[in-house]
Amino acid sequence: MIVHQFDQTNSILNTFIAEMRDVNIQKDVMRFRRNIERIGEVLAYEVSKTLDYEEADITTPLGTKKTYLCSDQLVLCSVLRAGLPLHQGLLSFFDAAENAFISAYRHHPNDGDDFEVIVKYFAAPSLDDKILILTDPMLATGKTLENVLNALKKHGTPKRIHIISVIGSKIGVARVENVFPEDTQLWIAAVDDALSSKGYIIPGLGDAGDLSYGVKL
Domains along the chain? Predict the structure, then answer.
């Protein structure tokens, strides 16, 4: 797997991440969602550089201009519900892409530290010979993306897979590297060192779904 980790380079992306982590700024729910969306836009642009393009002639009012347009078919697949702002950021750039959505949540038996990731709702087009872009803001343990990958297999074989995340842990990144195809590319804004006993990223930023849409029962 090729890992593109953007917090190792100074850019405006670090400002978006800092605002999302800040316990005071993240209380502004609309700004929190917009920062996730903006990160999606930045990473979409970076991913676009790896896609296939073909020559095209564009007719203007004064003549013809030769250019190159993306020839790949894209499918954006987001993990509900935290992935929705990230999905929108990607869709702002890849507006012709097909869309898929999958629900995944942690089940903690008896409120213990151990948990399993349960995948239920799933809607997707055929993935055969298409570019699959998986979006999940928080790559904590990697279990969610592993289960999502297993669920996607019955919908075809993608040409290539890209994973888009906001913050991950070293453990989660390592797990994803082990289970996804070797030519998968991970585009992630920041990677933190540790996980809590319950599998949450430290220092992280909290629960991205709750911060975006309100606390769930």
Answer: 2-52+70-192 (3.40.50.2020)
